[in-house]
């Protein structure tokens, strides 16, 4: 006579790191890289903009410890990283629409591990965008700044991508399906212009400058270019930290609302 064995749920082994592992990360990265539209618009568009802006007159004028071409290069690297990170985060919207996020809630994958996975993928994709823009800058041969400054600007751009990765996740939980990137793409371009990433704020009217100081792109733009310009107002640091904290809190809040549903 066979006996039925029961499983004690208290003895179940919880996966290490909440289920975060190299296999899951690899799958996420491959999913992003297979998306041709994401690769084109987030990796090659900033590089094309770098070539376009760098071809303007006055690119060899001095800017801090470098020239205008270096100033543009640092800005385009930040824009490419922000766009890429936001695109990675916004994939949450597609996963929710397809029911994948609901399926994941049936697995041992912890919500925190899920967010960390998205953050890691955003960092890797952001690093690729930064590398692409800087590679174009090297091949173009117009950017002039010390190598140490070059590396510092790139590293700061990578750190600042976390702000927009969180923004992407937040929007992905608020906006349904493919509409997330349709909002983030034009939205980030507008914020870049308004926040002084593409055009120095000194060229704007005073009223526009006051508005720009409150935008999410202003703080990170100043932080990324600080090694080049040697200028970093305290309120720019507050801006960068404040918006990052706000987007992270918003993403966590929306995720908690989503995971609370059965």
Textual characterization of the structure:
The chain crosses the membrane at residues 38-56, 68-94, 115-137, 149-175, 187-214, 234-253. Keywords: Antibiotic resistance, Membrane, Transmembrane, Transmembrane helix. The chain is globular and about 60 Å long. It has one domain (20-50, 65-259). Strand 1 and strand 2 form a beta hairpin. Helix 1 (22-34) packs across helix 5. By secondary structure, the chain is an all-alpha fold. The protein has helices spanning 22-34, 36-54, 68-98, 100-104, 111-140, 147-174, 179-194, 206-212, 216-229, 234-259; strands at residues 62-63, 66-67. It has 10 helices and 2 strands. A two-stranded antiparallel sheet has the order 1-2. Helices cover 72% and strands 2% of the residues.
Considering the chains and any ligands shown, give keywords for the structure.
262 residues, mainly alpha, two-stranded antiparallel sheet, 2% strand, transmembrane helix, membrane, ABC_2_transport, transmembrane
Radius of gyration: 21 Å
Strand order of the largest sheet: 1-2
Strand content: under 5%
Q: Report low-confidence residues grouped into runs of 5 or more.
A: none
Which structural class do you get from the secondary structure elements? mainly alpha
Main β-sheet, in a few words?
Answer: 2 strands, antiparallel
Overall residue-averaged pLDDT value:
81
Q: Indicate the overall shape.
A: globular
Overall number of strands: 2
Instruction: Please report the number of helical segments.
Output: 10
Portion in helices: over 70%
Order of helices and strands: HHEEHHHHHHHH
Q: Please give the domain count.
A: 1
Q: How far is the N terminus from the C terminus?
A: 39 Å
Protein name: ABC transporter permease
Transmembrane segments: 38-56, 68-94, 115-137, 149-175, 187-214, 234-253
Domain ABC-2 type transporter transmembrane: 27-226
Organism: Nocardioides ginsengisoli
